[in-house]
Amino acid sequence: IRCWSNIPFITMPLSRAHGKSFAHRSELKHAKRIVVKLGSAVVTRGDECGLALGRLASIVEQVSMLQNQGREMMIVTSGAVAFGKQRLRHEILLSQSVRQALHSGQSQLKDMAIPVLEARACAAAGQSGLMALYEAMFTQYSICAAQILVTNLDFHDEQKRRNLNGTLHELLRMNIVPIINTNDAVVPPPEPNSDLQGVNVISVKDNDSLAARLAVEMKTDLLIVLSDVEGLFDSPPGSDDAKLIDIFYPGDQQSVTFGTKSRVGMGGMEAKVKAALWALQGGTSVVIANGTHPKISGHVITDIVEGKKVGTFFSEVKPAGPTVEQQAEMARAGGRTLAALQPEQRAEIIYRLADLLTDQREDILLANKKDLEEAENKGRLALPLLKRLSLSTSKLNSLAIGLRQIAASSQDSVGRVIRRTRIAKDLDLEQVTVPIGVLLVIFESRPDCLPQVSALAIASGNGLLLKGGKEAAHSNQILHHLTQEALSTHGVRDAVQLVNTREEVEDLCRLDKLIDLIIPRGSSQLVRNIQKAAKGIPVMGHSEGICHVYVDTDASVEKVTRIIRDSKCEYPAACNALETLLIHRDLLRTPLFDQIIDMLRVEQVKIHAGPKFASYLTFSPSEVKSLRTEYGDLECCIEVVDSVQEAVEHIHKYGSSHTDVIITENEKTAEFFLQHVDSACVFWNASTRFSDGYRFGLGAEVGISTSRIHARGPVGIEGLLTTKWLLRGDNHVVSDFSEHGSMKYLHESLPLPQRNAS
Prior knowledge:
alpha/beta; Aldehyde Dehydrogenase, Chain A, domain 1; nucleotide-binding; Aldehyde Dehydrogenase, Chain A, domain 2; proline biosynthesis; six-stranded parallel beta sheet; Glu_5kinase/COase_Synthase; globular; eight-stranded mixed beta sheet
C-alpha cells in the first residue's frame, strides 16, 4: 500500500549523501529505485526521423514489470527531436503540396526539397506526441506516467532543485513513472568544456549527464544507460581485437579507447563513461548496455536487474583475483602448453596428483568436514546430496587408483595418428587426435569430481574451467590447490582454473568465444538449465537417467533379484540406478515375481504401478504419475510388457537413452535387445550400475553422454579429443589435378604407426 506524504516537498533532501554502490552484479536484484536512460539511438528509427515503436514498447513492458514488482522506476528519455522532425517534415510536405496545387492548378506533386529543421523547433513539436505515446503504452499495464522537462538551470537554482526533488518523490510515492527529458526547446547549445565541474556538480548538457545528476539527486540504487553498443570495449567496437569490458573500475579510463559518438544524440561513449563514474561516486551503481539489439532488447533491462552479465557494470570494488574471462584465457594458454608436453610428462602430473590425494588425506578430509558441517547446519541439502558431498579415506584411495589408471592409459592419447592417406605422389594426409580446447565442467556436491575431471583434462591436453557448488567450497579449494601443485611439476599450473567469482552459471554459458565444451555434472534440473542457457557452446551430458531393467520369461531366478537389487539399491541417487522395472506378462503371479516384490519390500523400495501393471491387480500400489520419471531414491516403477519387442518400444518411448538391461538366458532374445535398444549403454545380465567410466576401465569419467554426436556413454579421455588433418606436400596445387593436369589422385590407405605398447 502506498501512502500519501504529509511532509511538504520543500523539506525533501536536496542532494544525495555519499552512499555505497553495489559491489557485484548479483546484488542488483536488490535495487529499489532505478533510472533507465534511453539514448537517442535506442528510441529513434534508423532513418533518424520517427520513433522505433517496437523497441519502445518492449522497454515500457520491462519497466512496467519492474514497477509492478514494487520498484520505483524513472525514465530519462530522448526522442522528442526525432518525433518532432517526423511531424514537421509531414507538415512541411503537406503545406508545400497545397501551395503548389493552388499555384499551378494541378494536384500532381513534384519533387520538393525539405529545409533543414532546427533541433529546438523539432523538440517543441515532438514533446507532446512523445509523451502521449508513453502514456498510451503505460496505460496498457495500468501504470500512470508523468512528464518532467528540465534544463541545467533547474539544478543550479536552489528553489528549483527543491521543487524538482519534491515533485519526483511525490510521483514515486503515488506509483507514477516519471518520464524526464531535457527541455530541448529552450536549452542553449552545449558548452564544449563544461562537462564536469568538480566532484559535486555535473553539468547537464545531454541526457547522459541528466540521468547521472538525477540518479544522485534521487539517491537511486541503479542507473541503466541504454545505447546502441554492448557496453565499453578495450578497443573501438567493431575492430578485430575489441573485447567487451564486463566490469569497469574508476581509474580504468586509460585502458579504454573511445570510438565516435552515436549516430544521433549529443552524448558519445566518453560522455556516458564520465556521467557513469560521477553517478558511481555518488553511490549509484551503473550499467551501460545495448538497447537496440533485436535478440536482447526485449529483456535487457530485466536481465540487468536480475544480475545477468549484460553490458558493462561499473563497480568501485575490484576483485582480488582474475575475472572468469581471464581465467578462461589462462586455461587456453595453459592447455596448449599442456598438449605440447610429452605424454610421459602429462602422465607424471597425474601420478603426482594421485600421490597428493593420499599424502594430503588429513587436510582434504578436514576441509570436507567443514563443508558437511555447514551444509547440515543450513539444512539445505537433501540426504542423497549430503552423501555425494562426503569424502572418506576409501573414496580418496579409489580416486588415487582411478587417477593412476588414467595416467597409464594416457600415453598415446594426444597426437595419435588414426588415418593415413596418400593423396598423390609426395602428398600425404594424416588425421591425428588433438584436444578439444577449453572445457567448462559445472558440478554439484561432488568434490571427488574435481580431481577426476582434472586428470582427464590433463591426459587429453585440454584447458579446464571448474565451477563447483558453494556447498563444497572448502573441499574444492584444497583439491584445486593440489591439482595446481601437481601441474607445477612441468610449469602448466594455469591449465586448470577454479571459478571462485560470483559468476552465475547462465553467464558462464554465454562465453562462447572462450569455452569449447560444457560438461554438467549434477541433477537433471542442472543439466536442463545449462542446455537451455548455453549459447553457441555444445553441452555434453544427459538431462535424465531413466534406466530400465527388463525381466524376460527365460530369466534366471538366481540372477534376477541380485541384478535388480544392485541396480536399484546399491546407490539409488546415481544417474545409472534402475528407475523402471519391466516384467514379462507371463511372469505375473509366479514365484519369481513374488521374490522380486519381497526383495524390494525388504530393501524398503517404494513401488509405483504402471497403467498395465495396475490393471492386473485388485489392490495395487500407487499408480505412477508418469512413466518418464527419475526418482533418484528408493522408489521405482513396475510395468508389464507382452514381449521383448514391446519392452524395446517402451524404452524408446519413455527412456532417456542412458542405460538399459535385459535379464534372460535366451541368447537370441538378448541379442535382439542389445541390437535394437538405442541407448548409450545396453547390458545383458548385468547391473545398470556398471555404466561408469571407472568400471569400464577408463580410469574415470567426466560424465555420461546420451547425445548422438561425438561421445556416448561414460566419457573418458577419448571423448575429450577431436581431430585435425595434417597435409604434407611439395609444391602441390589443385590445378595440377585438373582434366588436363599432370597429376592424378591416388587416395591410397597407408599403414598406421605402431601404438605405444604401454
